[in-house]
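Translate sequence into structure tokens.
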Amino acid sequence: MVPSTQQLLKDALLLPDQQRAELVVELLDSLPPAEPGQVRGDAEWLVEIERRARAAQAGVPGVAWEEARKQVLDRLPVFSPVVSRNMKSLGKRSALRFTA
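Result follows.
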């Protein structure tokens, strides 16, 4: 990271949790998709959320946290060191499941 980026990060880390979360959302939204065609609109996300909720309610097994984490890291090779460091802070949550 260049010095100005390091200072920006240092300042951002001093923000309250809610403001840091809002900043993260805005920064992620500003990035182009890793692959063309990866952008989903609100309607598509609602369909996906409903599909996952129905699957969870039906007892369909989800994806273990470690596998979900690996999938995220594999999709973001450019950001892997940063993402990996930040995701480690979430700890091991093997009971956490994500519906695929």
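Note: The chain is about 60% helix and 5% strand.
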